Amino acid sequence: MERGLSRPGKRYSLNTPFIVLYVTGISVVCWVVCSLVSNGFPLLLKSSSTPVWKLTTSLLTNEIIAYAIGILFTFGAAILLHRANYALMLIRERTILPFLLYLFYVSSTPNFIPLQASTVCVFCLVIAIYLLFKSYHDEEAVVNAYKTALLLGVGSLVWVHILWFIPLLWRGMYNFKSWSPKIMAASVFGLLTVYWFVFGWCVWQQDFTLFTHSFSLLGRFSLFRFTDLGWVDWISIILVGLITVAATINILTHELEENLRTRQFLWFLILFTCWTLLLFFVYSQSSEDFLQILCIPAAILTAHFFTLKRNKFTYGLFHLMVISCMALLFIRIWNF
User: Fold this and answer.
1) DSSP string spanning 105-123?
2) Which residues contact 253 (CB under 8 A, 6 or more apart)?
3) How many CA atoms lie within 13 A of 114 on its CB side?
């Protein structure tokens, strides 16, 4: 009887070598196809681009190098996300799905290929969230708080809107019982460390553009309009969004199956998703960047759903999502 019960779970498992090769292979194909049509190259500047990112795009004039850097950052962020999940046990069963889903979400969206400012900032955010989770119930985690703010400060030189995630991390510290006046002071000092060097550079160059322009971007609110994206983009967003909502509902309705620590981590990722969506709607000039940031919590939440809901429906839903997103990618490329 036990053998009979174990077979369906094994049969519909997505944590298999075939799935790894299948999803990774499709992701690589997406990058190859985009490179063949020079999708996203030359690198485009936005009204929200910082002086550092403008300088970066002016230097990346070789398409092969730009795509190579984009691939390294994408695979690197996926590996970091997988290692963070593995170390913190956000999903109570060992799985490689966070790596695969983040890689696929980014690779199947041509707006993220080959490289944009948020591609770099994903690194900073994943490490910052990992350090935040490691500080759980530790009011003496001053070093982690400093490192977290320092990382986001460095990331803000490339994409200044990442600074909006500092209040979210403070909220996480409060929820995880790791907030204290020393922690707050350390995080503020970490941010000031970066901008102290920036200010010194501006004084030396007698040009304060790097300092003033970046911060002025934070005050340029522009509400998102639904016409800013095409119908193909909306289908992709709605498809992944619905699965993420289903994953969120599953977590909320089965939260007692998790231990308290994991439950609070998952709650934070849900809050992270909501906060990023809010920023997405109030900064239309950076909407694509916030969509890429959304891939972080979406990868973990949907991986949690597909790992623990192991049945025929979720197995078919996973493959439907992969095939649909890839088909939508080719439609975008065809209309490119």
Assistant:
1) HHHT-GGGSS--HHHHHHH
2) none
3) 26
Q: Which two tokens stand for residue 192?
A: 């000031």
Spatial distance between the Cα atoms of 145 and 196, rounded to a whole number of angstroms:
18
Instruction: Look at residues 249, 259, 252, 241 and name the one whose alpha carbon lies nearest to residue 90.
Output: 259
* 7 band by pLDDT with thresholds 50, 70 and 90: very low
**Residues 6 or more apart in contact with residue 34 via CB below 8 angstroms:** 40, 110, 113, 114, 333
pTM of the model: 0.88
DSSP states of 143-181 as a string? Answer: HHHHHHHHHHHHHHTT-GGGGGHHHHHHHHHHHTT---H
146 and 190 Cβ atoms separated by less than 8 Å: yes
10 Å Cβ neighbour count for 184? 14
Provide the token pair at 273: 């998703």
Q: Is the pLDDT of residue 275 over 90?
A: yes
Using CA atoms, how far apart are residues 73 and 147, in angstroms rounded to an integer? 20
Q: Is the pLDDT of residue 140 over 80?
A: no
**How large a percentage of the chain has pLDDT more than 70?**
94
Listed residue (160, 183, 151, 154) closest to 170, CA to CA:
183
User: Is the pLDDT confidence value at 257 over 80?
Assistant: no
Q: What is the pLDDT of residue 328?
A: 82
pLDDT tier at 260 (50, 70, 90 boundaries)?
Answer: confident
